[in-house]
Amino acid sequence: MLTIDGSDGGGQLLRTSLSLAVITDRPVRIESIRGSRPKPGLKPQHLAAVELLAEYCDADLEGAALGSETLTFEPGDVRRQTLSVDIGTAGSVTLLLDTVLPLATVIDDPLTVTAIGGTDVKWSPPVAYLQHVKLPLLARFGLDAELEVDRVGFYPKGGGDVTLGMSPSSLSPIDLDARGSLRAVDVYSTASVDLEDSDVADRQADRVRERLDGAGVPIGERTVEYVETRSTGSSLVVRARYDRTLAGFDALGEPGRPSETVADLALEDFEQFREIDAAVDRHMADQLLAFLVIAGGRVAVPELTDHVRTHRSLLSEFGYDVSIDSGDETVLLTSAGHDPA
């Protein structure tokens, strides 16, 4: 059994450990889960990921309880095709789905996962990022997955409802060492219906258009939505479409934060990204690593973040190698790839 030290990583380390345990059919014991966090151990969104993967493969579990800092996960022989999970809080469903996405490379039949929780919450990508940035980018390399959003969920009540459908996927090498020319910038602006009278989603999108027009940046798709939710909130995703890649930048509305400021926050990240030659945004960097080691390839990322470092260390525990070449503006991550079968 492989023993993983989770003290230096957060929930992403746990989620990737579970994914790789299923992909490699290798039992794992994760100790000191989220040990460096102020409140270590399994929170509801982490426990939901554990139970989801356990249901998928009929895994034997020890330590699967709220607050637990040690978990043993031993994959079984069953492979289910339909799964559902309710986090029970506004915990992130987009991060939860990160746990199952790599399974597309090993499934023999289509897999459908329905998840309820927070779709647009702090410290995680909004659902529009997953829909319009991550999944389309991975689709370029063979990932066959689609996401349907039945309800958006903001903090604190959550209640967002999404369904991820995946089909067996064979990935080609992920060649993202350069991004090419900027084609256009797309805008996805969402707010709860109680904010429609204040034109919150429209103002977020209008601010983006105003600033991009002033900078001479081509503007593409503009989507503005007011949606029924359990909690008041708004979110914004700005997608940059390049010849060879996609990059996303997002921000959330908060009490006292003007809609225009929400747009400015997302655009500041985009403007910083334009100044370097990375092929993916800094949040996508560690999210791609599991796919990179399976498919092989090269990815130019903005920086070697702590998330990338801990993720790379975890992958090495499973026998996957990622080399690092640091340049003046970007970091090139390279892997020879490994057949998950």
UniProtKB/TrEMBL annotation:
Biological process annotations from GO: RNA processing
Keyword Cell division: no
Subcellular location as annotated: Cytoplasm
Pfam family, one: RTC
GO function terms (MF aspect): ATP binding; RNA-3'-phosphate cyclase activity
InterPro entries the record matches: RNA3'-term_phos_cycl_insert, RNA3'_phos_cyclase_dom, RNA3'_phos_cyclase_dom_sf, RNA3'_term_phos_cyc, RNA3'_term_phos_cyc_type_1, RNA3'P_cycl/enolpyr_Trfase_a/b, RPTC_insert
EC class: ligase
Binding site for ATP: 98, 283-287
Record: active site: 307 (tele-amp-histidine intermediate)
One cellular component term from this protein's GO annotations in UniProt: cytoplasm
Enzyme nomenclature, EC number: 6.5.1.4
Segments forming domain RNA 3'-terminal phosphate cyclase: 9-318
Domain of life: Archaea
Keyword ATP-binding among record annotations: yes
Domain RNA 3'-terminal phosphate cyclase insert span(s) in chain numbering: 179-269
Its biological purpose: Catalyzes the conversion of 3'-phosphate to a 2',3'-cyclic phosphodiester at the end of RNA. The mechanism of action of the enzyme occurs in 3 steps: (A) adenylation of the enzyme by ATP; (B) transfer of adenylate to an RNA-N3'P to produce RNA-N3'PP5'A; (C) and attack of the adjacent 2'-hydroxyl on the 3'-phosphorus in the diester linkage to produce the cyclic end product. The biological role of this enzyme is unknown but it is likely to function in some aspects of cellular RNA processing.
Family: Belongs to the RNA 3'-terminal cyclase family. Type 1 subfamily.
Annotated NCBIfam families: PRK04204.1-2, RNA_3prim_cycl
Descriptive protein name: RNA 3'-terminal phosphate cyclase
The organism's taxonomic lineage, starting at the top: Archaea, Methanobacteriati, Methanobacteriota, Stenosarchaea group, Halobacteria
Gene from which this protein is expressed: rcl1
